[in-house]
């Protein structure tokens, strides 16, 4: 799951990035509001953690500009501004959640998982497709009730497809969800991960839509 972190404090930012990485997130970190607004505009992120006291452009302005463009990326505001009016202003400006510094990284990770889940219309904490169950909190995948060992990339790709069940995701969209800045991406990387997922979880789980991309069919009620 790829997350944008906008935080100008070097010590705090590095700690959050490292902590979220341990929870399975791919984190791109920017240190000012101009860069945060630019990156959010790409639509490449499943969620964003946004400090309000950013240099060059205040985080509240970043949030307002992002929502003015009808960008629906879930945004969790992370700030030392703990007064109730400031929290109300942030939520009314388009924030989806609000955390006051100092933070607990386990709580931050759980809130981000919840934001992404709600953004995709998922009410259950676990995702299921046939006999495959993915538990984001435990970072675990079960097939026929048995745990299956996946690489981080395989897990992230499966998570993206299961969150978007019924929707075709192109190779480019999947690459955006799998790789943070500076990652070297082989031209057939997504295809290789799909191959391994089919081998581990069953050939029928992931459909190829020729010329478009891949999908996991939405189960019929």
Automatic annotation (TrEMBL):
Keywords attached to this entry: Cytoplasm, DNA-binding, Phosphoprotein, Transcription, Transcription regulation, Two-component regulatory system
InterPro entries: CheY-like_superfamily (IPR011006), OmpR/PhoB-type_DNA-bd (IPR001867), Sig_transdc_resp-reg_receiver (IPR001789), WalR-like (IPR039420), WH-like_DNA-bd_sf (IPR036388)
PANTHER family to which the protein is assigned, alphabetical: REGULATOR OF RPOS, TRANSCRIPTIONAL REGULATORY PROTEIN QSEB
Gene Ontology cellular-component annotations: cytosol; protein-DNA complex
Sites bearing 4-aspartylphosphate, chain numbering: 51
Compartments where located: Cytoplasm
Residues annotated to bind DNA: 124-218
A Gene Ontology molecular function term of the record: transcription cis-regulatory region binding
Domain Response regulatory residues, every copy: 2-116
Protein name as annotated: Regulator
Location, primary (coarse class): cytoplasm
Pfam family name, one: Response_reg
